[in-house]
Structure formats: C-alpha cells, structure tokens
Amino acid sequence: MFCLLADVQIRRETDNRYGLRDALRAIVDAGGNMETTWSLTRALEVGDSAVGVPVLTQLYGEMKAAPVEPDLGRLSAKLGVKIEGKTTHF
Prior knowledge:
single chain; mainly alpha; 5 helices; 2 strands
C-alpha cells in the first residue's frame, strides 16, 4: 500500500515527471542495497531528493505508527478506474 500511495503522490506532485521507480533507482545508485546497512530514513531521504518532493518521508511519517485505511475507491476513481459489475475499465 505504501508503494502505491507513494507512486501516485510522487507523480501528482511532479506532474508525472517522476515516480516511485525513480526514487528507488536513486537509492540503489547511491549505494543503498542488500550489501549495505542504511537506516530506512536515509533511504527515504535519498529517494525524496531524487524526485524533488518529500513524499516518501512524509508518507512514512503518517503510516509508521498507526494503521492507515486509504480510500481505495476514491483513489481508483481519480486514476480513471471504473468498475461496472464484474468488468473493470481503465
């Protein structure tokens, strides 16, 4: 859920110039991988820096200590997903 919400928010805030993939690539390019020990906040900050908006750190701050129940119906509608019976239109 974190990844979906982060990707949508990054795309929204950067006018679709960047997405979560760009943040993740930047983390790897900076040396953040399974062979190194980084704090989660460091990785998120590197990702935010790469896309130019603090989405990852802000979203983590909102989600880290309490359950979050995003309105997936509203999110789907904003993304243009329409469900009619058993058919989904994109």
